[in-house]
Amino acid sequence: MDWDAIQQEHNASVNYVLNDMRDDIIATAEAMISAIKNGGKILIFGNGGSAADAQHFAAELVNRFLIDSAPYAALALTTDSSNLTSIANDYDYNEIFSKQVQALGQKGDVLVGITTSGNSPNIIKALEVGRAKGCLNVCLTGGEGGECSKWSDKLLTIKATSFTPRVQEGHLVIIHCLCEIIEKRLVEENYE
Question: What is the pTM of this model?
Answer without folding.
Answer: 0.97
